[in-house]
Amino acid sequence: xxxxxxxxxxxxxxxxxxxxxxxxxxxxxxxxxxxxxxxxxxxxxxxxxxxxxxxxxxxxxxxxxxxxxxxxxxxxxxxxxxxxxxxxxxxxxxxxxxxxxxxxxxxxxxxxxxxxxxxxxxxxxxxxxxxxxxxxxxxxxxxxxxxxxxxxxxxxxxxxxxxxxxxxxxxxxxxxxxxxxxxxxxxxxxxxxxxxxxxxxxxxxxxxxxxxxxxxxxxxxxxxxxxxxxxxxxxxxxxxxxxxxxxxxxxxxxxxxxxxxxxxxxxxxxxxxxxxxxxxxxxxxxxxxxxxxxxxxxxxxxxxxxxxxxxxxxxxxxxxxxxxxxxxxxxxxxxxxxxxxxxxxxxxxxxxxxxxxxxxxxxxxxxxxxxxxxxxxxxxxxxxxxxxxxxxxxxxxxxxxxxxxxxxxxxxxxxxxxxxxxxxxxxxxxxxxxxxxxxxxxxxxxxxxxxxxxxxxxxxxxxxxxxxxxxxxxxxxxxxxxxxxxxxxxxxxxxxxxxxxxxxxxxxxxxxxxxxxxxxxxxxxxxxxxxxxxxxxxxxxxxxxxxxxxxxxxxxxxxxxxxxxxxxxxxxxxxxxxxxxxxxxxxxxxxxxxxxxxxxxxxxxxxxxxxxxxxxxxxxxxxxxxxxxxxxxxxxxxxxxxxxxxxxxxxxxxxxxxxxxxxxxxxxxxxxxxxxxxxxxxxxxxxxxxxxxxxxxxxxxxxxxxxxxxxxxxxxxxxxxxxxxxxxxxxxxxxxxxxxxxxxxxxxxxxxxxxxxxxxxxxxxxxxxxxxxxxxxxxxxxxxxxxxxxxxxxxxxxxxxxxxxxxxxxxxxxxxxxxxxxxxxxxxxxxxxxxxxxxxxxxxxxxxxxxxxxxxxxxxxxxxxxxxxxxxxxxxxxxxxxxxxxxxxxxxxx
Length: 894
Known about the structure:
Elements: E1 4-11, H1 17-30, E2 36-43, E3 49-52, H2 90-98, E4 101-104, H3 109-112, E5 115-118, H4 129-136, H5 146-153, H6 155-164, E6 172-176, H7 177-182, H8 186-193, E7 198-202, E8 212-214, H9 219-229, E9 232-236, H10 237-241, H11 245-256, E10 266-268, E11 271-273, H12 276-286, E12 292-297, E13 303-308, E14 312-322, E15 328-331, E16 335-339, H13 346-350, E17 355-358, H14 365-382, E18 387-395, E19 400-406, H15 416-422, H16 428-446, H17 450-470, E20 475-482, H18 488-503, E21 508-517, E22 522-526, H19 529-532, H20 537-545, H21 551-559, H22 561-568, E23 577-579, H23 581-587, E24 590-593, H24 604-612, H25 621-627, H26 630-639, E25 643-644, E26 647-651, H27 652-657, H28 659-669, E27 674-678, E28 688-690, H29 693-703, H30 712-717, E29 731-736, E30 745-757, E31 763-767, E32 771-774, H31 782-786, E33 792-794, H32 803-824, E34 829-838, E35 844-852, H33 863-869, H34 874-893
Parallel strand pairs: 1-2, 1-5, 20-21, 20-24, 25-35
Antiparallel strand pairs: 2-3, 3-4, 6-13, 7-8, 7-13, 9-12, 10-11, 10-12, 14-15, 14-16, 14-18, 16-17, 18-19, 21-22, 22-23, 26-29, 27-28, 27-29, 30-31, 30-32, 30-34, 32-33, 34-35
């Protein structure tokens, strides 16, 4: 059967382009490969289209690949920019696009794909313009049409229609841009009309961009909030002059960042500035002439809204159209948003750990029903198509307030979009198939091409029937995730990603298995998909151990049972099922261990799988038992001539037996600053730069504490974030701080590898090109290593500017990594972190930091950047890892 080609539109011109990019990657990975062929259509900051080279989809951020590195002159202040900061003419723009793919004209769309899946956010994506373009070229697309998209982006227009339709609405003022900037009485008018707290937000932006909540009578904060919503920024000369260079750079980075600031280009008076370097230098020049500099983004909003703050429970609700029941809108279970801070802003919405999602919202059934009914009524009012996301509040007064209807939704792996669909039993791959199917139904009704849409619908329906029958014939893989280490949440992200990629493949049928319990007794649970998509490992653990399905979820499940049956072949969601080790042998063809730290990377699970003769991924038990222990690994490497940091292990018994003597011993062997870290935890877990005795004492206090909760004073000394977990251990590792010394070039790298067998059964290693890791702080954080849009990784690493020299150094580094991998008997795949010193004569030193026998496998992890350079997609790489594990088991058994 010919597959349907799906053009995935992502990126874009709006301030939410990074969320769009990450969402597009999710769609690209999760489309059912037996039915669809994903075609990645990237939209750049100028609005150009390009058929993106597939390997770039797995970069952590748009800025990691576009504009290409050669087009970016080195920033004086280390700023990273988007393409529009280059101020390129149209011909140059096309040349830049040619380096990341094939530039596209809209007239070529129809030859490349059969329908468009829209993952764009905000202006130029959700506002009807792209929808109109696709209508013109007769290409069906997902989601709402032109007119409802216009309603969905314009908050002022929405409010007018909602008031007329008698929806509950907060008190609101619509303010023009001119009023916002120049009405001297605006603050008093807002106080008199709205009162406190008040919400200030742009009139036509995507979710949570430019939003502020003003709690108190503060004219200055009111002014700042107005400017934020209009995407303007002020820099006072007196404030600027008091800052040092680093503080000035942080200010420019914060004010002009596209996610939290006003973005670029900007106008200051009659001066147009495109690049943050230009902004920095311009301020330096002008502060002696002006007391205040006023910047306006060229992508500024035309107005803003000021409205009263609604006290109550905040929620988000996905509404879909049930094409199996006459295209009637039906609301999925609404999700309550528990915020880590007062404002559910851009970062809270899209970064794991900053907020929690509770589905369904914690309310009586009657209240949940009223939310769903109001969401469907609003969906009807605006004439949305296929699906929408509607945000609002259930007020303390018992009323439902809807304040933000969106014609699309964020499509990150654990977004509301997938989170709520999971409650009716659909995983991301299945829900995407549903969205495409129902969107085609709406296009068939509304477009001028009903027969083309009907043929695609028929093709999908036929494939769905066949797919549910064929799934039983695929290789069955248990994906183990979770655990109880400080990296258990990253493990969930990794495991979800492995599960989703395998599920959308044509060869595998994965089952998510959650590990919990303790070091004394591991417990394994097969997860239903709704638990797999919970926020984090602790949330999953709580739901597994105290499983109770909300009665209202059961009701919604019955209401949508036909959809669940059609896309899963099942009648309803199963319950979590506890299993034993023998289940892995009896029911699965292979196991993928997606755990980090202990257990998982320490060899204990590997030893059990070896005894049961179950194929698994990664290194064997003996090798894993060594590499989990950073001290033992360093010792073994140094004994064999490899370079490592000077290191020393400190036990809790030694420290507690004589704190003063212990610290004196450390200080006699190490010079501040140095690094302190756990001996046997995953990468970046509680790794701290220690500058003085006070910080050393604080680190030891936290590491060796008896109670679960960390010491508040010690946490403050080490600047531990409230959301940052600090493990308790019986040992800690002290390492000297590795520096450039007299090297000409010094960089931190992370480098992956994989193994295979040659025709003679000999183990063969493939060392990938390294990624250069750039830390935002003193050490790389977990977020920077594994979460989309957070870290900056440059692949391949920039060893030298001249190609031949860079290649020569790379080969020298890889040769050293290969020797270490063989010494440690790493197998399957692994990742090694190291520092590299490059001297004037190009002599190279590799200083090993740590070895990870089970690297993180989140969507943005840089090992996928490295495999892409070898022509391997993430699924290809995962497939290779599993096939190697199966072959190893067969060889060991023979």
